[in-house]
Amino acid sequence: MSHANPLDQDRAQELVEARELRATLRVVGDLVRLQILRRLAQNEEMGVTELAYALRVSQPLLSWHLGVLKRVGLVNVRREGRLVWYALSRQALRSFHQRLDEWLGERSEEQE
How far apart are alpha carbons 104 and 18 in whole angstroms? Predict the structure, then answer.
């Protein structure tokens, strides 16, 4: 009967967490998506047309990027009839920041 090594289990969990963090970092690492997040942070919510105009990108390209952001939970979507409104998910952003801090190992205030 073999028993899993606790160090191997810890390493496996660390890799899972690292991959999840990497996926979100890749999403926000794109310049267009980073600009979308900034614009949404500055406004309560925005429609696609308004956002596309503000960022000077095509609506199809913007919709694709918004879909990527939505899949990782950084953008909330609200439908109002035929209109679709997008907003930054501040809760998801805080959660990501907290997970990243925990994974990196929070430093004491003396180290900062």
Answer: 10
- Backbone torsions φ then ψ of 83, nearest 5 degrees: -85, 145
Query: Which residue type is seen at 83?
Result: L
Coil, strand or helix at 44: coil
Bridge partners (DSSP) of residue 78 are 85
Cβ neighbourhood burial of 21 (10 Å; 0-12, 13-18, 19+): middle
Tell me the C-alpha distance between 88 and 49, whole Å. 17
pLDDT at 108: 47
SS3 26: helix
Owner of token pair 């660390």:
14
CB 32 within 8 A of CB 75: no
Give tens-digit pLDDT for 68-98: 999 999 999 999 999 999 999 999 989 888 8
Q: Which residue has the higher pLDDT, 106 or 57?
A: 57
Domains in the chain: ranges and CATH: 11-102 (1.10.10.10)
